[in-house]
Amino acid sequence: MHDTFKGYVAPWECDEMEHMNIQFFADKFSQSLLRHLFFLGESSKGTPGTLRALHMRFHKELHASDLAAAHGEVSAFEKENGVLTHFMRNEESGALAATASFHLPLEKMPDEVAPLANEAAPRGLTPGLLFRPGMEAHEGLTETNLSAVGGHECSAEGGFSLKGYFSRLSDCQGHMWRLAGLGRQEQKARGLATATVELHFQFFGALGEDDLIAVHTGLDAVGSKTLHYRHIFFNGKTGAPVAAADGIGLLFDKETRRAIALPEAVHESAAYHRL
């Protein structure tokens, strides 16, 4: 186990939900991963160009002025492929905030491999629910993002950063909830907010500076309180899919910070954009 990150939640890293936005979890976990790879003697920088997949679970919110700390461990290694799992905690309370399991090639056999912790293991996103090649042509998908990769969003190697992907995902969420029949303005009026509790990202290609991005989204009400969504990222110049993110989202009351049942209108709207 290696201590790999220690930092702070700045007010500008928090969104209208009054918690740290998902893109800054990605940013802090990216820094954590880079240090872990250094400790392991790996040359990889852990950028989306080398990552195969990333599985995240979110356990407890982080808020402005919270102290965040992370450590990493090797959870699997087989035939030069590894899983590095990182745990981020509120350093003052000790509460686990989130986990991130990075699937990527490793050059060296690690000295120690720890079993994947239950807190990091897939829960709602079972393999059968995840994106598979060919699903990008599904007629139920709706365009939720058109943008371009800025130079400031790229790593030193020139590829689109993990924070960049999560920034687009965050932007898409507002459109996704509008598709679900409960847009941000209505949520605000009703004192509601949203959160992702589990996320699985797969990477198929690379994006670089000035590349165009298009994201198409589908969703499915899968439980009384949870919504399964999927964002597929395309290279806007070639039309090729470069990444897919499957997530489990929910609604919560901003005053009590507790999850609430999805309104019937959300279940009905989901049918029109079904995965």
TrEMBL record:
Signal peptide: none
CDD domains: 4HBT
GO molecular function: fatty acyl-CoA hydrolase activity
Matching SUPFAM superfamilies: Thioesterase/thiol ester dehydrase-isomerase
Family annotation (Pfam families): 4HBT_2
InterPro entries noted in UniProt: 4-hydroxybenzoyl-CoA_TE, HotDog_dom_sf
Entries under PANTHER family matching the protein: 4-HYDROXYBENZOYL-COA THIOESTERASE FAMILY MEMBER, BLR1345 PROTEIN
Protein name, UniProt field: Thioesterase-like protein
Taxonomic placement: Bacteria, Pseudomonadati, Pseudomonadota, Alphaproteobacteria, Hyphomicrobiales
